[in-house]
């Protein structure tokens, strides 16, 4: 059974640019959630999608957005990149039901210079 | 403010010893997760605790949840080097994986 796939694994961008990250969940999983991990702030929830609908959003500026496609693949976009956006971005895949386990991808390491 | 506090944040111990990691949280929730992260790697699910009094065990690790005290513990029995990693607890405050994370406990187990 294939795991959660995130692409790309590494990315270097310049301040002011925008970036799109992709997450392919485990087959059959309809929920994808996104997290940002930094040494200073730790792990922080960005948003969660289920069947193409955003169900929850964390406390991040509007520069951070996402979407989910009919095949459950999800993308997140960050516009007008800032140095502080440098982080490991993780997505998690689950069935989306109460209390089910979430499986994480390997993450995308974004560096903003 | 919603908080999830883990302690200790760093733990160095000898193989064969027992120890406990504590996770306190400030909001009402009956869904708590434990994850493991190895350096440079992603998060691996260890336990899903869904009710007061829940206890789960896997190998040398045992996790429990006391929702009244808003406390979860991760107990390590007879530690081995392979358990060296960072352990995170996370509390689900919504219905859909809106997880609030602890800062993580970096565990080093020396041979």
Task: Walk me through the structure.
The complex is a heterodimer of chains A (113) and B (111). With 113 residues, chain A is mainly β. Chain A has strands spanning 5-7, 10-13, 19-24, 31-38, 42-50, 53-57, 64-68, 74-78, 87-94, 103-104, 108-112. In chain A, the strands form two sheets. In chain A, strands 2, 4, 5, 6, 9, 10 and 11 form a seven-stranded mixed beta sheet that branches. In chain A, a hairpin with a 3-residue loop joins strand 4 (31-38) and strand 5. Chain B contains no helices and eleven strands. In chain B, the strands form two sheets. In chain B, strands 2, 4, 5, 9, 10 and 11 form a six-stranded mixed beta sheet that branches. A five-stranded antiparallel beta sheet of chain B has the order 1-3-8-7-6, with no helix packed on it. Chain B has strands at 4-7, 10-14, 19-25, 32-37, 43-49, 55-58, 61-66, 71-76, 85-92, 99-101, 105-110. The mean pLDDT of chain B is 92. Chains A and B meet through strand 4, strand 5, strand 9 and strand 10 of A and strand 5 and strand 10 of B.
Provide a quick synopsis of the model.
The complex is a heterodimer of chains A (113) and B (111). By secondary structure, chain A is mainly beta. Chain A has strands spanning 5-7, 10-13, 19-24, 31-38, 42-50, 53-57, 64-68, 74-78, 87-94, 103-104, 108-112.
């Amino acid at each position: 059974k294939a795991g959660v796939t995130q692409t790309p694994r590494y990315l270097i961008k310049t301040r002011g640019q925008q970036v799109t990250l992709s997450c392919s969940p485990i087959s059959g999983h309809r929920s994808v959630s996104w997290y940002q991990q930094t040494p200073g702030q730790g792990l922080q929830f960005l948003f969660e999608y289920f069947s193409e609908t955003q169900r929850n959003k964390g406390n991040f500026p509007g520069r951070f957005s996402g979407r989910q496609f009919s095949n459950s693949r999800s993308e997140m976009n960050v516009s007008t990149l800032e140095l502080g956006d440098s982080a490991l971005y993780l997505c998690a895949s689950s069935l989306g039901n109460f209390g089910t386990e979430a499986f994480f991808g390997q993450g995308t390491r974004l560096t903003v210079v | 403010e919603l908080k999830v506090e883990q302690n200790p944040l760093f733990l160095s111990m000898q193989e064969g010893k027992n120890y406990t990691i504590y996770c306190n949280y400030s909001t009402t929730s009956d869904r708590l997760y434990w994850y493991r992260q190895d350096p440079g790697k992603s998060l691996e699910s260890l336990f899903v605790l869904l009710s007061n009094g829940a206890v789960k065990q896997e190998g040398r690790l045992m996790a429990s949840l006391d929702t009244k005290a808003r406390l979860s513990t991760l107990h390590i029995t007879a530690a081995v080097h392979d358990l060296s990693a960072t352990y995170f607890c996370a509390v689900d405050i919504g219905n859909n994986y809106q997880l609030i994370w602890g800062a993580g406990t970096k565990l080093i187990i020396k041979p």
